[in-house]
Structure formats: structure tokens, C-alpha cells
Structure to design on (133 residues):
């Protein structure tokens, strides 16, 4: 499947970052990675050509919550998927900062791909209804 969609992937766990990047690259996505929220925000300043952001929530320096808040403030239509290994509270906070979807770690990579496809499909049709799988 050829896919030219550009994804910014943010996670402070290098193994998670590389596993997701490799999987999505094999699916045809153009994935740029950032190991911290601050690095991701700098990447957005330099290259705001992303179709979607996938961010871990709990990270040092700028958290995923901060990233989502800043991105949604600057680019309200940018779809964001939050991923987290921490229970209920981060999920509720991610909803409050307007993440378009939230996946609890551990998740299957195919589940992430399906979530990405659903969100990008909704973005194309203009349906911005929030949905948490």
C-alpha cells in the first residue's frame, strides 16, 4: 500500500519510537520521529507539513499534554493521537486537551494503523468528531 501521509511520532522510549516508525514506514507512511516534546515542537516549526501527530503523554521536558495543547492552539485541525501506559487520569487529560484518539499501551501496531486511517479519513471528510477507540 503506497501512502504519502506524513506523521510526526513522539516518544521518549527509543525502542517504542523505532518499532512504531518501522511498522508505519513499511505501511507506506512518511514518519519523522522526535524523542521529546520539545524536539517535536521544534520539528513542527521547521517543517509543518505533517498530516497527523502521534505522541506519548508522559515524557520529560515538554509532555505530550503540552505538545497537544500547543499544536491544537496553533493548528486546530491537526489530528493528534495520544498514546499512554498510564491509567485513567492521563486518558482524561488527553481528552481535555482535545486529542483525537487515545491508545493505551501496550497496543497492537495494527490497532494504531487502523486509528490513523480512521482519523485521516475523518479529516478528509471534514468530520472532526472526537472518538476514542
Amino acid at each position: 500500500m503506497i501512502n504519502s501521509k506524513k506523521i510526526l511520532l513522539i516518544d521518549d522510549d527509543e525502542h517504542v519510537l523505532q518499532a512504531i516508525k518501522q511498522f508505519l514506514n513499511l505501511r507506506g507512511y512518511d514518519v519523522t520521529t522526535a524523542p521529546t516534546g520539545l524536539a517535536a515542537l521544534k520539528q513542527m516549526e521547521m517543517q509543518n507539513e505533517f498530516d497527523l501527530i502521534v505522541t506519548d503523554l508522559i515524557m520529560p521536558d515538554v509532555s505530550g499534554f503540552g505538545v497537544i495543547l500547543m499544536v491544537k492552539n496553533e493548528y486546530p485541525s491537526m489530528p493528534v493521537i495520544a498514546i499512554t501506559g498510564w491509567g485513567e487520569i492521563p486518558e482524561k487529560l488527553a481528552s481535555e486537551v482535545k486529542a483525537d484518539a487515545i491508545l493505551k499501551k501496550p497496543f497492537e501496531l495494527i490497532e494504531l494503523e487502523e486509528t490513523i486511517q480512521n482519523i485521516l479519513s475523518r479529516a478528509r471528510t471534514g468530520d472532526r468528531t472526537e472518538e476514542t477507540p
